[in-house]
Each structure stands twice: as C-alpha cells, then as structure tokens.
C-alpha cells in the first residue's frame, strides 16, 4: 500500500477561529456571559468576591482565597499598566495576517487582575510598566473586544 | 520526604522506538501504527509476554490521532489486558509523567510490569502552525486577540529578559549549541541545514518579539514513538532482563492552564510569592527528583529539555540547578552548555534543532542510549547519570526524571 502524504486541515477549510473545532468553548460560558454582555455596552467588568473585597479574572468560578461561589461582577477602572508583551510578526492564521505586526500582551489592572489583550501603541510606544487604558474595538475575527491603549487616559 | 524509598525502586528493562518519515516507502504512518510497533519492540527487548503487561500508561492522546479513548485503541491493537490503564494528561509533560505513575504502581506492588508509550506524528498529519495556537491559548480570552504560539511564550520571554537582564545574544547560545548537537544526529530535523552562529540567530526573521525564527522550536517533519517497559528493582536484578536503567528520581509540577490565567495564580509553590512569568514548576519537580535519587545537579553527566524556545531552555537550566536563578544566559554565554567542554545539553539537538512532535519520550530515550553507550556519533563518554525535563505548554506542566546506570539506593 502506498499513497501520498496528506495535509490534513483540522479546521476543514474554515478560517482559524478560536474554537471552531471545539464547539462551545469559544462561546461565552455561564460563568463568563456577564463579561461579554458588558463588553457590548463598552464596559469592562471583573469577578468580585464581596467577602474578601477582591477582584478576579472574569473566568473565576470560586474565590481563590475563601472558596465562595457567590461572586459578583464589578466594573473595572479600565486603567492599568503593561506587564508583558510581544509584537506578532508571523500571524497564527490568515485572519490575522493582514494586521501584522500587532502586539498581544498582558496588562495589570488597578484592581490587581491581569488580562491577556491586544495592545494599541498610540499615542505612546509599548513598554513594560507603560500606563494603559481600556478601549473597545472590533478585531480581525469580527468580535468586539476590550483592548488596551498605551498612554494615560 | 515520604518519597525517598522510591528512588531506584524501579528500572527500565526494555525500550522500543519507531520513527516515521514523510518519504517512507510504504507511506506515512499514524501515531497508532508507530506506537504499536514501538510497544512490541519494547516488550521484545524486555522479554515479556502480552499477559505480563500489568499497566499501560500513555501521555495525552496524540494531537494527530484524536479519539475519545486512546488507551483502548492502543491496548486493543496490542491485545493486552492491563489492570491499571490510563493516559497522563499534563499537556506535553504527561509523557514523562507516565514513568512517575509506573514507579508508584510498581513500588506499591500492584503490578510487576508497566508499559509506557508515547507517540505523535503531527508532522505527517497536521497543519501545526495553524492549529497549535488552539493548544496554547485560552480560546475565549486569548485566541480572539490573534496570538501565535511563539507570542504566548514571548510573554514569559519578555518578563524573563526584563527581570534578569538576559539578552537575545545570550539566548542565541542555546540555538547555536543545540544545532551543533543536531549535526551529529542522523534523524535531527535541522541536520541538513548545517551549523549556525550567534549572528545568524540575531539576524533571523522576527516571529514574535523578542523571539526570532532561530529562537523557536521546529516541528519534527515526521512521527516518533517511544515505548518503555519498567519493573521493580527485585525483578530487574533477578537476571531475567538483559539491561536495566534505573529510575533514580522523578518529580512533576503543573501551575496553570493559559498564560493570562497564570497571572491570577498565587498561594502555592512556585508562585508562593505571587504570580510571575519567570518561575516554573521545574524547580519543584527537580528538587523532589534529586532528593529521591540522593544526587545533585553536579552528578548529572547529561541533561535534556523539551523547552521549545531558546530563553525557556535557560530558565530550565536554572531550575534544574545547573546555575542560579537569572544566570542561565550568562551560564550559556560563558560556555556552560558549549558542545566542546560544557554540560552535554540537548544532545539530540533539542526541540530547536532535533525538532518536536508535540509530546514524547525521545529525550528520555536519548539518556537511556547515552547511559548504555549507544548514542552513535554523539556519544558522551562515561555517562552514569542524566536528567530529563518534559514540558507541557505554555510553560505550564513540568516533569523531571533522573536516570542512572546503577541504582543510587
């Protein structure tokens, strides 16, 4: 038996989208739907434990410290600083290829929560510890997302 | 530590391997094909029957052979009936984790022989650049921003270089030395590319700052399967088996799922001082492995890491104890891992120049070969002990195994 090697495309010809082949995971899940609803209204919210007076990543289901599942949504200031970043020159898929170079990074919010995000270098250049402010933009996949603009608001 | 009696309580008594290439005359093979071939070779090398296989442990399901119950596919092909059967799914770190589980089961006396199999052929069957980002980033909170796999690891690189003063030039030493070793290996992916210099690395095209092309792992253009048979010390010493390689120590530590979420983790080692991107679970895993074995980094004649980027290899060298925290770059720049005279590190060529198939035991296989003098063309003289690091991305899961020629306890 002999045959030519095949190039198997996992996404079966569908442009790379987060989770097209893991149906459900890329959609807002019950514990994160409040975050994405807020994004639609131009608002950045975080999970919040009233008992501990502490904010968490929007995915948190239970408080890391006290273990409570009674977490609420709290509006974030939208201000923070650059914790880490990378300028992407080789895009992961065709969807993003037209945008290179662009920068993805991690911001540390005033509330003590870190978010992975897109960093926009205007008006200031991107650097560790540079101040950032949240903005909301439609990115390459057509999704409205919180991004962070370098420079104090 | 309660684990000290398990050091050198078990040994590898058989190893089998199978390598698949795109131009194989009978066509490319699946991971299942390669795994089954390697498993039967390991059983033959150990001289055990199908009925004697007490446990089957695999790493996670091969990316290029996704079925819901991979172990059943494999044991069905091998026609074995293990009484302990499971996948070890600490991302890519689970491959080495199979040895840990085997040692625990053997030491407890519930089985006499464990068969560990890892296999992957993503280079034959997958678009790795297009699909791998889905394995390395949060599909809801990271992937929509367009991170490539290197740009996710670059978050660690950016902080590591910022906090330690490590330079791109220091990192480039890893690429150069890995390539030097790969040139000695008949099956290394980058063997045909010839040697590279620091200048070549620094001039290669930017992929995701600060990582350039030659800072990144290459995908192995084929498939690799490695299978090993382990047994207890009393059986290994009993004269039945031709060869024993002792599992002197092991450890494992997993810290997070995705890089963004990593920064929301604290309160446990190695993040007891708060979230960071410069420490991994390797130090804890290595500490346990060294304690079990009674050995230290100074006793290691050879070291292998599956870290997929140049800077990450420096972090791992630090956490395996070959140099202090933050000094990996200066260690490498000062000849610490030099092909000529340094620590024999990534003697297959590492993930950067041998290539990676997403998970596997081929780094472990290399140490077994080195210990028994079978590493043709790249044999390090007198290898009595070696350490292997297995990584599961993104810098999330870390397994460490120490192998020795003689039992250490």
Automatic annotation (TrEMBL), chain A:
<dbReference type="InterPro" id="IPR002878">
    <property type="entry name" value="ChsH2_C"/>
</dbReference>
<dbReference type="InterPro" id="IPR052513">
    <property type="entry name" value="Thioester_dehydratase-like"/>
</dbReference>
<dbReference type="Pfam" id="PF01796">
    <property type="entry name" value="OB_ChsH2_C"/>
</dbReference>
<protein>
    <recommendedName>
        <fullName>DNA-binding protein</fullName>
    </recommendedName>
</protein>
<dbReference type="InterPro" id="IPR012340">
    <property type="entry name" value="NA-bd_OB-fold"/>
</dbReference>
<feature type="domain" description="ChsH2 C-terminal OB-fold">
    <location>
        <begin position="73"/>
        <end position="137"/>
    </location>
</feature>
<dbReference type="Pfam" id="PF12172">
    <property type="entry name" value="zf-ChsH2"/>
</dbReference>
<feature type="domain" description="ChsH2 rubredoxin-like zinc ribbon">
    <location>
        <begin position="36"/>
        <end position="71"/>
    </location>
</feature>
<dbReference type="InterPro" id="IPR022002">
    <property type="entry name" value="ChsH2_Znr"/>
</dbReference>
TrEMBL record, chain B:
<dbReference type="InterPro" id="IPR002155">
    <property type="entry name" value="Thiolase"/>
</dbReference>
<protein>
    <submittedName>
        <fullName>Thiolase</fullName>
    </submittedName>
</protein>
<dbReference type="InterPro" id="IPR016039">
    <property type="entry name" value="Thiolase-like"/>
</dbReference>
<dbReference type="Pfam" id="PF22691">
    <property type="entry name" value="Thiolase_C_1"/>
</dbReference>
<feature type="domain" description="Thiolase C-terminal">
    <location>
        <begin position="274"/>
        <end position="405"/>
    </location>
</feature>
<dbReference type="InterPro" id="IPR055140">
    <property type="entry name" value="Thiolase_C_2"/>
</dbReference>
<dbReference type="GO" id="GO:0003988">
    <property type="term" value="F:acetyl-CoA C-acyltransferase activity"/>
</dbReference>
């Amino acid at each position: 038996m002999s045959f030519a090697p095949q190039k198997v495309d996992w996404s079966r010809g569908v442009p790379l989208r987060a989770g097209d082949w893991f149906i459900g995971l890329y959609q807002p899940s019950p514990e994160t739907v409040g975050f994405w609803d807020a994004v639609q209204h131009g608002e950045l919210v975080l999970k919040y434990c009233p008992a501990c007076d502490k904010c968490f990543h929007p995915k948190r289901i239970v408080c890391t410290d006290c273990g409570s599942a009674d977490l609420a949504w709290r509006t974030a200031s939208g201000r923070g600083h650059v914790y880490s970043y990378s300028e992407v020159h080789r895009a992961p898929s065709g969807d993003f290829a037209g945008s290179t170079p662009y920068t993805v990074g991690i911001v540390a919010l005033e509330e003590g929560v870190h978010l992975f995000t897109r960093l926009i270098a205007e008006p200031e250049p991107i650097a560790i510890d540079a101040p950032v402010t949240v903005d909301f933009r439609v990115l390459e996949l057509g999704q409205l997302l919180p991004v962070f603009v370098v420079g104090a608001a | 530590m309660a684990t000290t009696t398990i050091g050198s309580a078990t040994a590898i008594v058989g190893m089998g391997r199978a390598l698949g290439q795109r131009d194989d005359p009978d066509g490319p093979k699946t991971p299942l094909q390669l795994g089954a071939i390697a498993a039967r070779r390991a059983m033959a090398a150990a001289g055990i029957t199908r009925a004697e296989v007490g446990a089957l442990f695999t790493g996670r399901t091969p990316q290029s052979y996704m079925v819901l119950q991979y172990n059943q596919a494999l044991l069905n092909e091998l026609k074995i009936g293990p009484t302990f059967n499971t996948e070890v799914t600490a991302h890519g770190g689970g491959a080495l984790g199979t040895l840990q589980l085997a040692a625990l089961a053997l030491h407890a006396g519930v089985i006499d022989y464990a068969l560990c199999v890892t296999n992957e052929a993503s280079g034959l069957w997958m678009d790795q650049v297009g699909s791998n980002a889905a394995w390395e980033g949060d599909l809801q909170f990271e992937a929509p921003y367009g991170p490539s796999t290197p740009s996710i690891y670059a978050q660690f690189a950016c902080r590591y270089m910022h906090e330690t003063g490590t330079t791109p030039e220091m990192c480039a030493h890893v690429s150069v030395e890995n390539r030097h070793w790969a040139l000695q290996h008949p099956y290394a992916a980058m063997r045909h590319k010839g040697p590279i210099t620091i200048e070549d690395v620094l001039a290669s095209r930017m992929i995701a700052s600060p990582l350039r092309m030659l800072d990144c792992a290459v995908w192995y253009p084929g498939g690799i399967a490695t299978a090993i048979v382990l047994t207890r010390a009393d059986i290994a010493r009993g004269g039945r088996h031709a060869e024993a390689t002792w599992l002197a120590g092991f450890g494992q530590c997993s810290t997070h799922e995705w890089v963004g979420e990593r920064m929301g983790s604290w309160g446990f080692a190695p993040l007891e001082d708060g979230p960071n991107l410069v420490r991994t679970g390797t130090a804890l895993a290595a500490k346990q492995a060294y304690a079990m074995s009674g050995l230290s980094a100074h006793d290691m004649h050879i070291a292998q890491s599956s870290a997929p980027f140049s800077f990450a290899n420096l972090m791992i060298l630090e956490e395996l104890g070959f140099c202090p925290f933050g000094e990996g770059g200066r260690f490498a720049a000062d000849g610490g891992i030099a092909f000529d005279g340094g620590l024999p590190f990534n003697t297959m060529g590492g993930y950067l120049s041998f290539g990676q198939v997403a998970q596997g035991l081929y780094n472990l296989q290399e140490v077994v070969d080195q210990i028994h003098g079978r590493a043709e063309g790249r044999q390090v003289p007198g290898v009595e002990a070696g350490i292997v690091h297995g990584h599961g991305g993104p810098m999330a899961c870390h397994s460490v195994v120490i192998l020795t020629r003689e039992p250490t306890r």
